[in-house]
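Entry for fructose -6-phosphate complex. Fields follow.
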Amino acid sequence: EKGTYPHYMLKEIDEQPAVLRKIIQAHRGPDGGLWLEEDTLRAITEADRLYIIAAGTSYHAGLVGKEYFEKFAGIPAEVHISSEFGYNMPILSERPLFIFISQSGETADSRQVLVKVKEMGHPSVTLTNVSGSTLSRESDHTVLLHAGPEIAVASTKAYTAQIAVLSILAACVAGTKGKSIGFDLIQELGIAANAAETVIDRKEDMEAVAFEFLQLSRNAFFIGRGIDYHVSLEGALKLKEISYIQAEGFAGGELKHGTIALIEEGTPVFALATQPELSANIRGNVKEVTARGAHACLLSMDGTAEESDRIVIPAVHPLLTPLVSVIPLQLISYYASLHRGCDVDQPRNLAKSVTVE
Ligand code: F6R
């Protein structure tokens, strides 16, 4: 039930800190350290390469997950759009493991890949919010997201849950391989949950941003580098699906290779600059677009922020920023949709789970 909330989406955005805390609890072992079901952990650890398969928002979470598997555990990982994978299969490694990410566990595009790789005899893990869903039943292992029912068509809390669970999976695999990830993940996820709460408390400011930057816009750009680039794709998807504003996410450095031609007086550009070592580069890209008339909204993090940055999230571990930086983007999309009179929870042409290929 949405209770006092005007929309499920707003309720689900608000639930994110609690979901993160629930995930931490669910993966805490008796010794206080990280825990993952043993068979699942073994299956991932035995693989020489991971193939992450997903669609839409879950694909965007997969892009972040790849970073965790490679940086924490040293396992190469590829992320594929499920609808493309079936007929465009890459050369597989000797011991591949497939990770399906699906909030609903019912996405037909992802299921057809699962059917195919099962026929080939490859092991699979499904990350889903719905126990007993098709993908969960048909894959070898399931890891639950603990996000609770997600009703709004636009996915919010499932995305952050997927990213948190992926970080835990990767850290557990690192542990099994005797690798140190260099920080205390449980503690840092807790810090991220608190930071998420802080951002959620700034709704009025996000509403003001939506009004200032998007009230009259027909299009918008989201740019970022590294992990911020992955989040920029998700920010753009959220905005287009519920506000019908055409939005694109781009790697900061790629914009000048063509897309910058679209920047004109007043074009909104949301630039993510949370990564300390990439901050100078992305700020350079912001200068390029503002010189051409763009209306830039900078989103940075305490520690690397500059005076003029419009949105500053509290400091979290640089690899966990997506858990927090996506929230202002979700809220901005929400308010943009609301003020344009769109149907926030039930956008046109979309269904919550896409059960056709
Ligand atoms: C976007 C959205 C969709 C889903 C996609 C995959 O807000 O909801 O892009 O993420 O259809 O759905 P699942 O995760 O259920 O496989």
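NOTE: DSSP finds 13 helices and ten strands in the chain.
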